[in-house]
Amino acid sequence: MTTTAPRRSVLISDDETDIRLMLRCALERAGFEVHEAGNGDETFRAALALHPTVITTDILEPYVSGLDALGMLKAETSTCDIPVVVVTCMHDPDHRRKAMELGAADYLTKPLSVSTYLRLVEAAAAAA
Fold first, then answer.
1. What's the whole-number mean pLDDT along residues 109-116?
2. How far is the C-alpha of 107 from the C-alpha of 58, rounded, in Å?
3. What is the 3-state secondary structure (H, E, C) of 22-69?
4. pLDDT category of residue 118 using cuts at 50, 70 and 90
5. Distance of alpha carbon 41 from alpha carbon 29, whole angstroms
6. Residues 2, 29: Cα–Cα separation, whole Å
7. Domains and CATH numbers, the chain
8. Nearest-10 Cα torsion for 52, 107, 12, 124
9. Per-residue pLDDT tens digits for 60-99
10. For range 49-58, the mean pLDDT
11. Pick from 55, 61, 54: which is nearest to 17 by CA?
């Protein structure tokens, strides 16, 4: 009897639909199951329900920011082990430092290279 490994999944959190679509296409081509959220609150709730392999989040999101969601995810015992890659237009070193202090696995600035994004997600998934 053969068993298949569970499919790796990524939760993309970005309030820009076009960005989510671009990342979804790249991730699906790479073999990931993909889920989407449009803000930090949706991200937190989806992570609790889905427990994805990796989460990628923007910082500038409505209602609950990506950094606030990151803090919530790392404070919750059921999600604290999920690697989170921050993908944002915020080039400020203080934002990068804050994200890493909160427990981000990596930090990528927009405009982004899809190949770099996939490399970071693959590395985060391998470490999960």
1. 93
2. 10
3. HHHHHHHHCCCEEEEECCHHHHHHHHHHHCCCEEEECCCCCCCCHHHH
4. very high
5. 27
6. 24
7. 9-127 (3.40.50.2300)
8. -30
9. 888 888 899 999 999 999 999 999 999 999 899 999 999 9
10. 96
11. 61
